[in-house]
């Protein structure tokens, strides 16, 4: 019998997405199927999710889930096997998964994602319609309490894995909510959900997990330090024997330049000429001058973590050296305004779109020359992997998954034909300036640049290897009883 895994996630591509978590939750089940593992994913019933389900069967009902009626619906969407928590009081709202249209977080997020986690633990203990998981995989703070509910409830014997996609987001709330969580008194403490006098959802998940994974090996090492541990480095070091860094992969069925319906012409490592049509379309979309100057792209949240303040300070430098910039993203309002002002100041050389547009992001990867990712920390990053796959050379800070996936164009790597990008020290504005200048110089030497493009496109960052590592971890936990 195939292994049965319940994945619990707050977002999943293609139904709802704010970042890489959705891509992973959407792609990993298909990759694990190739390892003989069947995955059902429990997700919240946001309007965007329910509108895509069509006919969905109620598999379980709650008269009062945290005081509100709810049901678990079973549905299939393509290869995704979904369990959808239909709880209108919690999820039938306009705005994003975690906040309103103005960017403010929903004040009852503690209850919304405790409800999701509570249901995940119920699925682990009782299953639905003859199906019960052999293991539960919870993603980030929004689902991490699943592990705590399991540990302190009837599903305590079912192995539980918690994946950290970004340690900066921890789900911290006041101590006053603990009596409403439905956990036993012994769950309140250093070895439970208590965290610096409050309630910590991610902390509760990490201390309750049989295994902790991060989305890259380097990030697994980084979060053991005070600099990157975000206050949890002590806990993580205490559980280092259960910590595993497994690199994210790319869904090669969606991100494939040879068969991508979202770009003007297909291309491959052997035939890069097809990229020119995407380049011209990109220039048109962003109002950039039509010339042969290198186009840097950014597809990112506009935040301090992503180093976007350093990019703002480097724009005049980039343009002064002859480069162009196309930016797609949203985030901190001051940064959004600053990028729009830069586009107005450098018309024809800088273009900016505020928001997120999945089809446009494909065009940017296919038409851009280099993707700029100066993150101060980056658990894995997926945009650099998309860049590698599409011949859009990554220019990245040496952190987390960026360090694990991009080979710097130093003299030895260029000579060996192994270079795939440009890597520079993080949190250093002068290093970012130097990396931009180096990219422009390399771009001017077409044979070297094309060799980097082809080397990146040949690299295998599919889910095949990573799924095998997850499968090995899951089987070990089940065989050893965690």
TrEMBL record:
Keywords, A to Z, come to: Glycogen biosynthesis, Glycosyltransferase, Transferase
CDD domains the UniProt entry points to: GT5_Glycogen_synthase_DULL1-like (cd03791)
Q: Which HAMAP family match?
A: Glycogen_synth
Domain Starch synthase catalytic, by residue range, is 4-237
Concerning PANTHER family, the annotation shows: ALPHA AMYLASE DOMAIN-CONTAINING PROTEIN (PTHR45825:SF11), GRANULE-BOUND STARCH SYNTHASE 1, CHLOROPLASTIC/AMYLOPLASTIC (PTHR45825)
Q: Which Pfam families match?
A: Glyco_transf_5 (PF08323), Glycos_transf_1 (PF00534)
- An annotated GO BP: glycogen biosynthetic process
| Record's protein name | Glycogen synthase
Tell me its family.
Belongs to the glycosyltransferase 1 family. Bacterial/plant glycogen synthase subfamily.
Q: Which organism is it from?
A: Sphingobium indicum (strain DSM 16413 / CCM 7287 / MTCC 6362 / UT26 / NBRC 101211 / UT26S)
The answer on whether this UniProt entry bears the keyword Hydrolase reads no
Quick one: which gene encodes this?
glgA
Query: Which of the seven top EC classes does this enzyme belong to?
Result: transferase
Q: In which pathway does it act?
A: Glycan biosynthesis; glycogen biosynthesis
Enzyme Commission numbers on file: 2.4.1.21
Where do transmembrane segments lie in this chain? none
